[in-house]
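Data's thin. Show one?
=====
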Amino acid sequence: MTDPRILLIEDDPSVRHGMAAFLRANSIEVQEAETCRQALELFRSGNPDVVVADYSLPDGTSLDILAQVKRMSENTPFIILTAHGSIDLAVKAIKEGADQFLTKPVESKALLVLVRRLLQQQRLRQQQEAANRQRAGILDPFQGESAAIRKLEEQARMMLEWDSPILILGETGAGKGVLARWIHFHSKRSEEAFVNLNCAGLTRELLESELFGFERGAFTGAVAAKQGLLEVGHRGIVFLDEIGDMDPAIQPKLLKALEEKTFRRLGDVRDRVVDIRLIASTNLALEDMVRARTFRDDLYYRISTLTLRIPPLRERPEDIPILAESILQAVASRMGRLPVTLSPRAEAVLRSYPWPGNLRELSNVLERAMILQRGDCLEAADLGLEDRLATAAEAPGDFVTLKEAEKAHIERVLNHTGGNVGEAAQILGMARRTLYDRLKALGVTLGT
């Protein structure tokens, strides 16, 4: 863990140097400033954990700094020091957001104790906020103002009080897992377990053991019994992501568990009772798979009792600026930076781009831009999208369909990777299999 950072603002060099030396000797990183202007510049670039400021400064007072600091980061503790304290001034400082108001001379040890106490309170507050965000699923699946996202929220809320299975449809990166966690948190099973399993890429044997568990000696290497996710999720919610990739041999066993509320562990002879609500998701066309006999029709009808479709970003461009702002705030918090904004041109580029990887790709683009650009405003060039959009247009002033723009973008990424589908899928923020499906749907052929 890094040392805590203090911004120390004091125009008397001897006082400032003495306090800074004492704090550094006690494992606290100190940034020093002697004017309001210098202090604000350091705050924007350094994002300190605590601000300690003398009241009277050459170009103003610490109250001038306090107002701007609280606008940028309202939870940063702020301590004001003054040689000419008064009750009226102290009351004014506290009302405007100061955490402590101390009269000079201040003993260094007393200041250290106060700073550590404020840091501990700050950590506890941050931990509680993090726990609350985690419990709530971190992200709101209904951010935006579009009619499509409002309809999705209305439908989801209607399904909360029931126990029927829910099938969430959506392209890769659309936020199916976020929606599933939101449903769990707001349902009557919210106090029980939420377990999830991604069915894509799992062998039949591994998928079966993960779902149903096994008894000791059920197969080579089964040295001890193990609970499956159905048992772990008893009375709660089991989320099966990408259920369209589930091995056909497992599908009738899952159907039995859903219909009869019983299952057997591998190697066991007795049934176990289980009470779960199933939420499944897929980016595949299950109805087509049913017709092709690659997915059981009876299981499909069982899991699709209630269906939610998450609209892709290209169908709700008006929501993209709202989503981008939320992502930028989250990334800034994770990186220990102040939030950044988008220029009007950057926002326009985000709205114009087709986003084949949806929210996951949007998050990747914004995080990469923040890493490579350290300013407080992202410009269009920082996003690395304008050249991709340009290739989708046949000539200046021409318009193309979203499908054509998506095809042009994917082809450009494939050219960049030399035809490496795995690398291209990573750049696009989608699974390799999903990219193959998109290539087929868009009529893109890979070179040999």
